[in-house]
Amino acid sequence: MDALFQPVANLKGIGTKRAEALEKLGIRTPYDLLYHVPRGYLDYSHPVPVAAAPTGEPCVIRVQIVHKLAPQFIRKGMTIFKAVATDGLNDVTVILYNNPYGFQALHTGSWYRMSGKLQGGLLRREISAPHVLADDSKELIYPSYPLTSGITMPILVRAVKQAIELMRQQPFDWMPEEMRLEHGLLPLTAALEQVHFPANPALMETARRRLAFDELLQLQLGMLIRRADNRRRSAYPMRQDTDLEPFYGALPFTMTAGQKHAVEEITADLCGDAPMNRLLQGDVGSGKTAVAAAACYFAARNGMQCALMAPTEILAVQHYHTMQQFLEPLGVSVGLLTGSVRAKERREIYEALADGSMTLVVGTHAIFQKEVSFARLGLVITDEQHRFGVAQRTLLADKGGCPHKLVMSATPIPRTLALMIYGDLDISVLKELPRGRLPVQTFAVTGKLRQRAYSFIRQQLEQGHQGYIVCPMIDDRDESELQAVSSYAESIQAGAFSAYRVGLLHGRMKPAEKDNVMTAFRNHELDLLVSTTVIEVGVDVPNATILLIENAERFGLSQLHQLRGRVGRGSAQSYCILMTDHVTEDCRTRMQIMSRTNDGFQIAEADLQLRGPGDFFGQRQHGLPPLQIADLSHDTQLLHEVQETAKKILEKDADLSAPEHGALRLEVLRLFRRSGENGRN
To answer: What does the pLDDT read at residue 164?
Structure first.
C-alpha cells in the first residue's frame, strides 16, 4: 500500500516535469490518480458502417487503413496528414492536423476504431482529428480525463493503469465486508478499476455508486464530527433573563412571527455552555438583518462585542447604516471597517475594539487582519457565508477564542445540499416576508419588446419610483451580442431615458466610487441604475420597483432570484423583466420557473436539478470539500443511506479512533484537506 502514496514522479513515464504538471490537477501520488475520475467516456463498443454514420454527429466507425498519403505543408506551423481507410464497403479519408506521432501510429493493413464526426457526402466522406483505438484493444470503453498543459490523455491513461496495478498488488478496503454487502457495493479495488476502465456501462455505474457512497459518507462523518467538536468547546454563556423589549420597542416595524422565533432560537443558543453554530437562512427580503441586530443587542447587553462580516463593501456599508439605525439609539456603538476606511479612522477603530469601547464592528475581510484585536468578542456574524472561504471565517472566529457564530444566507439552499454544506450547523429559516410586502411580478420577453419594456420602466419612474437595469458584462467585446454595461448606460441616457438621471455601477470601479453611486441612488439623486451583478446581494433601496435583466439566459436561476430581490423591498408593487433572445429549451424552462414563483426554496431546488451542485454557488465558494464523484442532485437516495450509516458508525465510535476505523479516519481527513479545511467552521 505504501507504493500508492509515494511521489507520482516514481511512475514510469512521469518524472519530475510531468509530476509538476500533474500537481496542478491535485495529483501528487498514485493514490490521487485513482481518484482522478474520468469526466466522461468514449464508448467504442458499437461502431456503425461508414455509409450509416450521421453527418456532423459524434459516432464510432471501424476501419482498416488502406494507404497513407504524403503530408501536406499548408503554411508555417500547419501540416495536414491524411490516410485512406475502408470498412470493407465504403472508404473514408482520415485527417490529422499537426500530429505526426498519431499519423505514424496508423499502420497500413491494420484495423482501428475511430471516434469523431464524419463530414462530406455519399461519394466522399472524411473524419477529422478522430480519437483512435486499436481494434484488438481489450478496453472498448475509454476514459476521458480533465487535463492540464504538458499532460496528454495517453500519458494520463498509462499513469492510471500503473496506479491500478499497484492497488491490485496490495488491495485494501476501509469498508467492512458486512457494511459493503448490506448496501450492495463493489469492493474498493474493483470499483476503482471499473470507474476508470469499465467493462460495460452497467458496471461503470455500479463502480461510481460505490465511490460516491464513500465520498458522501466521509463528508457526512467529517461534518458530524466537527459539529460534535464545536459542541464540546467552551464559549461565552449569556444570561437568559436578558430583556429584548427595548430593542423590539424601538423598531420602526413589528417583527414577523418567523423573525421572533429565529431570535428565540439564537438567544437560547447564546445562553448555552457550547458555542452557537447556527445558520439563519431566509429568502431575499425576509428580514435577516433585523434578527442579526437583535442578536447583537442581546450580546451587547451581556457585555460582549460583535463582528458582522459582509462579502462586499457595498453590503458592509449598508449593514453598517442599518445597524446604526437599529442599535445606536439604544446605546450600542457601531463602527465600519473596510479597505477604503482612512488610516486615521482605522487606527481609532482598532483602539476602540481593543479596549472594548466599541461594541459592534461591521466590515469586509478587513475585520480579520492581524492588526484587529477585540477585548471580548462573543458573537461573529457572517453574511452570505458561501462567498467566504473556510479559512477566512476561522481567522475571524479565532480572534475571540471561541465566540458564538451566526451565519446568514439569502441564497435559498435545497435541503439536500444544506444537509451537506451545513451539516455542522443548526438551521433557522425565515420563510414569510415582512408585512406589507407584495410578491414581485415577473415577465420574460424577447428583445422585440424592448421599447415596450422601456416604456413600462418610464411609467414607474414617472410615478416617483426608481429602477435597475442589469447587464452581464463590463467591457464591449467584438463579435459579442451581450450588452456592455458602460456603452449601454451611455446609450439609454442619450436615448430612451434622456429625461432621467442614469447612474452606472460595476465591479471594476473603486470602492469609494461604488459607494458614491449607491449613496446617490439610495438618496434618489439617480432614477435608474445600470449595473452588473454587484447589486446581486443585499442592496436595499425600498423605492426601487422595476428591474430589467438583459441577457437573462446568462444567469442561473438562483442568481436571477437574488437579482430580483433588489426590488419588492417596499410596500409598492414591483416588477422584474427578464429579456433574452436566446430561447433554448433550457432557457425557456428557467424563465417559466422565474415567472411562476417567488419562492426562493422552490427555485433553488429547480436550479440544483438543472445545473447540479458544482455550479450552484458559482466558483465553489461554499467551503465544502470538492466532491469529485458524488452528485447531490441525483444521489439523494444514496445520501439518505449514507446519513444512517454515519450515525451508526459515530454512535459506536464518536471520533473514529477505534482501530477498525483507522483507514476511514484517514480518508475523512484527506477529503477535507482537499479544500484547505481544518476541521472547524
So the answer is: 96
